Request: fold
Amino acid sequence: MKITMIGAGYVGLVSGVCFADFGHDVICVDKAEEKIEALKQGEMPIFEPGLAHLVSSNVKAGRLHFSMDLAESVAGSDVIFIAVGTPSRRGDGHADLSYVYAAAREIAPLLTGYTVVCTKSTVPVGTGDEIERIILETNPQADVSVVSNPEFLREGAAIDDFKRPDRIVIGINDERARDRMAEVYRPLYLNQAPLVFTSRRTSELIKYAGNAFLAMKITFINEIADLAEKVSADVQDVARGIGLDGRIGPKFLHAGPGYGGSCFPKDTLALVKTAQDYESPMRLIEATVAVNDSRKRAMGRRVIAAAGGEVRGKRIGVLGLTFKPNTDDMRDSPAISIIQTLLDAGAHVTGYDPEGMDNARHLIQGIDFATGPYAAAEGADALVIVTEWNQFRALDFRRLKAAMRTPVLVDLRNIYRPSEMHKHGFTYTGIGRPNGPRLESPAGLL
Reply:
């Protein structure tokens, strides 16, 4: 089948290359000339394990193409995916759908023959209805089915998620689209991936409901971690104990500095706004958003407490700047709020991340950037692990201690055992463990 992917960002690029790897003929279209030219040269605009290899192999096989020419790319397409950004709209928190609707207007006059137009972008309930209205208003003769097909990709594991999905959700209001979408995903039949066909609006809500539930699960275990510290319990044992319950499950029960990234922050906020518009407020999700936002700065205060309650003039090393490992994505990373809290308190900060340094330089001002974890620890009065990259899991403690001015380690991901760190002479603070400091704010700090 011929597939056109509008938008060569994270979702569009990963989806497009995976469809090509299935054997489809795929064109990824984007208005960013620099990005398209880089992709043609084999240079990736994002870091995602395995992506560069798949792009290269499918380009060589003639199944994957990159273009800025929308008319040429859309011509003769069986399915056109819209995979453009839907960031939070400034001022009110609603999803900004301007790019989605612009794409619908641009492709409408180019449609010939029966075509399925499918949204991969994360969009609020009812967006498919508006896309259909725009297309038919622009081109009343268009023979089109508008479909919702949300993505469920984890950054850092997106290719595996795409090829071995838990489910494939397809929202249709036109039965003609069922067979065509089934053909798009036919290669996954061997993996017995379930195709879940729903109404279009139901599909749109599934995406938001799924992300909101996971964000709420993360926030729940973070609040349990705070309580665990005060009652001398261990949140990791709590998570293990409740996670063995099949109704709860072990995933997303890892206490930490709060969620970030390209999905959870904007999707939880967009769901809250949609619910308010329909006069069906979602109090649990509203609380999730508020608790997560405050937690990030609370983690900065935790570092200050671990460093003796005062960091003015002190050097703090930060390991991990991206919101999670195996990505270069800095969007809404907890590291941003944590570092800003430290800077506001007068600390000197040195940061390091295996893949996020370039993006971090554009988002975080006033800090030094190191060339590695030991360089970040050089002369530090405290070292903070914010992101659980594998290379931070096996640090040389002797070398680390020798580099630091004061051997204080704040482990916001609980990747080390307190007893092990104490044995090596470190003052150690984890999350949700009996020996962690309380979250009360030191006097004078917000």
In short: The CA atoms of residues 218 and 252 lie 6 Å apart. The chain has two domains: 2-198, 199-446. Confidence is low (pLDDT under 50) at residues 436-446. The domain at 199-446 is CATH 3.40.50.720 (Rossmann fold).
